[in-house]
Structures are given as structure tokens and as C-alpha cells.
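Lab notebook: predicted structure, single chain.

Context: the supervisor wants predicted structures on file for every construct in the current expression panel, including those that have not yet been purified. This is the next one on the list. No modifications to the sequence; it matches the entry in the shared construct table.
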Amino acid sequence: MNENRLYQLCGLCGTSGREHAVRSAIPKELAKLQLPEGAVRTDRLGNILVHKKGAAAPQRKVLFTAHMDEVALMVTYINPDGSLGFDAVGGISAAAVIGRQVTVGPGQINGVIGCKPVHLLSKDARKKPAEMSSLFCDIGTDSAEETMQHIRPGDIIYFCGEPHDLGDGSLASKAIDDRFGCEILLELLEKELPYDTDFAFLVQEEVGLRGAGVAAQSIQPEIAVIFEATTAADLPGSEGADRVCELGKGAVISFIDGRTIYDKALYDLAARICDANGIPWQTKTKIAGGNDAGAIQNAGSGVRVLAVSVPCRYLHAPLSVIRKPDAEACSRLAEALLSALQEAEL
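Prediction complete. Output recorded below exactly as produced.
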């Protein structure tokens, strides 16, 4: 895994429908590979689609995917006092954003997410979870007129979770979901491929898997592997199946989630690869979450799907955490799948 590039990708700002910074960075990496003309294209929705020739013609058309967008907030209203009303782009808990430092709009103006002081809340309100509609973003202005010199409804509010090492062997950053998957795809594209393979860097996953269905309909793969970050709930007070998956236990191979029942033969193949090569792996102990596989498997005549994810604490929060050895396990499995998906009996 190229840690420096992963850090750079995570540091970019690109939420659903606003993936421009990521969509500019990835082609610059692809240009280093000197792929032939026409190997890289961008569709009308903004997906980056790559076809790379390998040493042999494939038995099956295989697609590897990751999504470029991250969760964020969008300005919906400017209050008379100059503060900003907003809503979530993707699934974000209101409680996770209170007091967070953010940047707002094209000028990346500094701001902070505020809420009504606790002493002004009723007893009933204190017992209820915070709602996005009760929060605001303070950028230090005193009036709507002053704010509107800098910010307009539709502008994006991004979290300020700069990538950094955490403890011994962990990484903390915003946007690990799913810049980690984008890094996996770039690593694979840098290799000499055993077979012709397709790759897709997808848009708008966080708001309904919108780019995935379009890309899969265009490419028409037989098999797709989705690289993701998935919820690790190995936290104090979480026991048994509620932990879902855990940091430090390797790549996550899913058999089911909230959107998809994964292909059993592909699941078994990935597990066998890990066992045969000493790659640590785990599965999810609870039906939770979902990813682009939910849209890809329904494209065309149907697509057999497999998800490989890095376990991630505090997913869809201003700052998430993964372990580097888990990321390496995903990377090793990804490389092994390049040959196995063509050569195994499926």
C-alpha cells in the first residue's frame, strides 16, 4: 500500500456530486502508467472507467470498483445572524458533528458546527438525540448579508480531519471511506496484469449508489469486486455480534449486508485465498451497511459480486480510524484475485 498516496487522497475534499478534486487527482496517477489512448474515459455522471490489457485474454469480464465520494454537509439556508443551516450528504449522525472544525464553500472558509447550549434545552430535549435541523455552522459573521459575500446555499461543508498516524500502526483521517478503495485500485493498475481487467472509480455512492449502476450497465461485467471501508464497532460497551468486525483481524469479506447477498462461490474463493496465503481475514457478524455492490449486481443480466473491506472505526464521522496491517491484508487479497477470478472454477 502506498501510504503517502492514500494520505493525499484522504486529504482531498469531494462529496457526492462534487468529486472534482478526486476526479482530477486520479487521472494524474493514471497518466504515469502510460496507458494506451482510449483506456481511460469519464462518463457523463463522472465515473472514471479504466480498461487495462493483461498478459492474456480473460475467461470472464471482471470489474474492480471503489467510490470517490465522501460524506459531508451541504448549506441549505443562511440564517439572519449569518450562521448556516445545513443537511447531511450521506449518512451522518448529528451528534458526531457538534463542535467540529470545518471548511465551507469554494474559499474553504473556516467554521465550527454549533448547537443550542444545554442550559437552553428543555428536560425532554436533553434526553433526545441531536438532529441536523437543530444545528448550525458558525463562520464568524454577524449577518446574512455578510455571509452571502462568501457562501451560498448548495456550498459544501467539509470536515477538517487531516490524515495522520495514530498510535502504533493505525491511520486516522476523514474520507477513508472510500479513498482507501481508490488506493487499492491504483495499486492494482500499477501492476503487470495477468488478464485484461476493468476498473471503475465511482461517484455518488453515499447518496444511493448512483454511479455504480451506470458504470456497471456500461461495462457489463460478469463479476465485480467492490473495495470499501466498513463499520468496525469494536468499542467499549459493544459485545459479541454487535461489534460487526474488528480492527486488527484482517480484511473483511462480506456474505451479506443491508443491500446485498454476495455470491457464495466468490466468498468461498476469497476465504480460500486468504487461508492458503496466510492473509488475515474476518467477516461481518451483523447485517449492517451497504455499498455499490447493491446497484452493480442488478445491472444488465446480473453481476456476481464480492466485497472486500478494511475495518474502520467511526465510519461516516469527521475522523475515522483503520489499522495499516488490515489495509495490507486487503491489498494482498486484491492482487491474488486478479488471477484467481479467471482461473478458479466458479
